[in-house]
Amino acid sequence: MLTKDEQGQEYDVKNLIQKLEQFEEEFSNKLTQDGTELDTCSLVIEGEALSKFGIGASEKLAQSWSDQQRDTYYEQQSKLIRFAGQMSGVVCCRVSPKQKGDMTKLVKEHLKMVCLGIGDGANDVEMILQGDVGVGVQGVEGSQAVNNSDFAITEFQHLENLLLVHGRWTYGRIAISVCYFFYKNIAFTMCVFWFACFSAFSGQLFFEAWSAASYNVFFTALPVLVYGLTNQDLDQEIARKCPALYGVGQRSEYFNYGVFIWWISEALYASIIMFFFGYAALASQNSVADGRSYTQWSISTTVYAACVPGMTIRIALETSYWTWVTHLTYWGSIVVFFVYQFITNSVGVLGLFSLIPGYGYQYWVIWHLFQSGAFWLYIILVPVVINLPYWLYVCFHGLYFPSLLDKCRNSKYWKELVMAGLLDAELAAADMTEEERMRLYKRDTGTSDDKPLTRKGTSMQAALKQVPADSMGGGDNVALWSGRKNLTGAAAIRKAARRVIMQTFMKGEMDKELGRKDRLKGKFSKGGLSSSARMLASVVEAEKASEELRDSQRFKEQNPELYNETLRQSQEAAADGEDSVIEQ
Q1: Contact between 161 and 146 (Cβ < 8 Å)
Q2: Do the beta carbons of residue 187 and residue 198 sit within 8 Å?
Q3: CA dist 581 to 569, 571, 576, 584, Å?
Q4: pLDDT computed for residue 155 by the predictor
Q5: Do strands 133-137 and 151-153 pair parallel, antiparallel, or not at all (unpaired)?
Q6: Which residue from 207, 211, 178 is spatially nearest to 190, judged by alpha carbons?
Q7: How many other CB atoms are found less than 10 A from the CB of residue 44?
Q8: Helices (H), 423-465
Q9: CA atoms of 345 and 86, how far apart (whole Å)
Q10: Per-residue pLDDT tens for 412-432?
Q11: Alpha helix (H) residue ranges in 484-530
């Protein structure tokens, strides 16, 4: 979108709006005729055209606008941004730093999207600051972008890991951790509310004070902390090869009103099951096995004993990455709870319960409960019952309506994702037929026949033939030769191709330098050298020849077979060179 037509006549903002409407009408017709959608097209707009919409105007100029002008510009900007939001990409060329920041702000305001600002220079600072998240690239343009960003990288290629791997992991961890915090606290607190309904809201404690205070400090803190720091819902290699997974965060699928209401509903359901099952299981019975009667603290301790395992199992169902630290903190929290109960319920034996307020309420309660069959049945069944609906939902959804994440986790869906263009073909190359490979090739190259495209320039095979044998380590391991052992496949070949280009460039520069030295040597030869200089040169040459001879003999003694093979190849190469000279 330019500000001038082919004849050089300048457009005003009305003409630009008419062009936008013309584009929309044209693409709407295409959509009905051949299925072409707007998200397959791109928009290119220059800075002067943005100025026509009031984008990038200075504060002084904006203050001079009337209310009518401001409303007009707002409507025009909204129309432009909403039209651009339907495109697959938008390129703003020759724009000012202020326009970069304004465009980011308008996208956030009109499209309601989370924006990431990336830049490497001082002219990108405004855009980085306006974005929800800013990434600065440390480059030759200084460190202003890095100083004003949230994250700093040294190369633009590191953005792939930052967004598709660590960014997506972090979004999932934070979203689920926040929801889980509300879940476990509401489930625990609502048990107190249900008890208040039975105690006429008298203010009577349901959970002992020290035990209630320890719930978020000792019994349920570490599992969610470890989850928020270490969980990985998908392997990083697969995450990089499926960029479509990043859209989960853009659409806020893990943290929105619907998801939050689901967690709150789960918490209410869990509190109802824990309290009323405990009340029905114990309050209706007259005594424990040895004749002692159940008390209020017996019911609260029983509910507490089922709440901690139930909450731990819930976060375990969300966990995809298990390590020894995960197992230690998850199941160790349950062990810590029972150890705590043993100590606090037995402290009266030592005569200390009078010094620690509240401990006397639960004196020997846990030991009495261990003699009750209802207690053991309760703490085994209730954690399962409160997590059963979510587990059934996950199983049903994964079997019959798998999400993109579920398909990426299961290799049987990889070929389907590859054919849909959502996954890198390397993961499913072994399972694909020749016909599927040809269909994939046609889609990637845009061809309709079975003949491959004829590409100009040096092919990859020709480029790899230029790779020196010693750089390959005597083998065909392109990944090892590329300098990074963890590179395989296309990534290793790209690295190898860059190495070939660099070596070719360095060879050309070296040839130029040698040619320059030869010309200088010719000048000195013409002018004549002194006898001492000639003698010094001959001594240097003799020493160099002697050192090469010693190296050759040492190599011959250590590797006789390789030495003979190398010598034979050198003789053949020399013979081929003589033949070519004779032919010339």
Answers
A1: no
A2: no
A3: 18, 15, 9, 5
A4: 87
A5: parallel
A6: 207
A7: 13
A8: 434-445, 460-465
A9: 65
A10: 888 888 888 888 877 776 677
A11: 489-527
Q: How confident is the model at residue 484 (pLDDT cuts 50, 70, 90)?
A: very low
DSSP letter string, 67-116 = HHHHHHHHHHHHHHHHHHTTSSEEEEES--HHHHHHHHHHHHHHH----E
- Decide which of 471 and 107 is more confident: 107
Q: How confident is the model at residue 181 (pLDDT cuts 50, 70, 90)?
A: very high
For residue 553, give every residue at least 6 positions away whose Cβ sits within 8 Å of its Cβ, in sequence order, or none: none
Phi-psi region of 165 (alpha: psi -120 to 50; beta: other; left: phi over 0): alpha
- Per-residue pLDDT reduced to its tens digit, 313-347: 999 999 999 999 999 999 999 999 999 888 887 77
Check: CB of residue 414 under 8 Å from CB of residue 428: yes
Tokens 């050192």 belong to: 547
The CA-atom distances, in angstroms, between 191 and each of 10, 211, 215, 392 are 71, 14, 13, 24
Q: What pLDDT sits at residue 285?
A: 61
- Residues 346/364, Cβ–Cβ less than 8 Å: yes
Q: Where residue 290 falls among pLDDT bands split at 50, 70, 90?
A: low
148, 134 Cβ separation under 8 angstroms: yes
Tokens for 274, please give them: 């824990």
Per-residue pLDDT, averaged over 151-165, amounts to 89
H helical segments located in 353-402: 365-369, 373-400
Cα gap 169→321, rounded to integer Å: 11
Over residues 90-116, mean pLDDT: 90
Burial 80-112 (b: 16+ CB within 10 A, else e): bbebbbebeebebeebebbbbbbbbbbbbebee
What span, in angstroms and rounded, lies between the C-alpha atoms of 361 and 370? 17
Alpha-carbon gap, residue 79 to 41, rounded angstroms:
17
- Residue 163: CB atoms within 10 A of its CB come to 19
Neighbours of 139 (CB within 10 A): 15
